[in-house]
């Protein structure tokens, strides 16, 4: 498991960036440490570390799933990650258009609003 944790941390840093991961790690407590380990090993060390699809495709899938399920809190983080995954603005738009058709226009509309705000912030940084 130590290897999966380290691999997960490496992938997490490459996708989300050191600043985000350092902040999250700095906020970690004994209460949420098991949860952070679960995410690092499961999401990042297993799913994101897989070479079955590209980071670009995985990014698009993640954004579409977040929007479709109404998990809007993580959309800005994953929009920022597109700078590292290679998913373009057009890719994100295409993913959210699929959300509109298959999961509902209101969810896609809100996701697009968050994406626009986040891209604006990214361009100003």
Automatic annotation (TrEMBL):
Ranges of residues in domain Carboxymuconolactone decarboxylase-like: 35-116
Any GO molecular function: peroxiredoxin activity
Residues passing through the membrane, by range: none
Protein name: 4-carboxymuconolactone decarboxylase
């Amino acid at each position: 498991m130590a290897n999966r944790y380290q691999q997960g941390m490496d992938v997490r840093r490459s996708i989300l960036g050191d600043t985000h991961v350092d902040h999250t790690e700095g906020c970690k407590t004994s209460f949420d440490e098991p949860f952070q380990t679960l995410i690092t090993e499961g999401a990042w060390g297993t799913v994101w570390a897989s070479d079955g699809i590209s980071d670009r495709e995985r990014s698009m899938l993640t954004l579409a799933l977040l929007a479709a399920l109404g998990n809007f809190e993580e959309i800005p983080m994953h929009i920022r990650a597109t700078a590292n995954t290679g998913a373009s603005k057009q890719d994100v738009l295409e993913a959210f258009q699929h959300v509109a058709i298959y999961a509902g226009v209101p969810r896609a509309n809100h996701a697009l609003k968050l994406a626009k705000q986040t891209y604006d912030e990214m361009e100003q940084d």
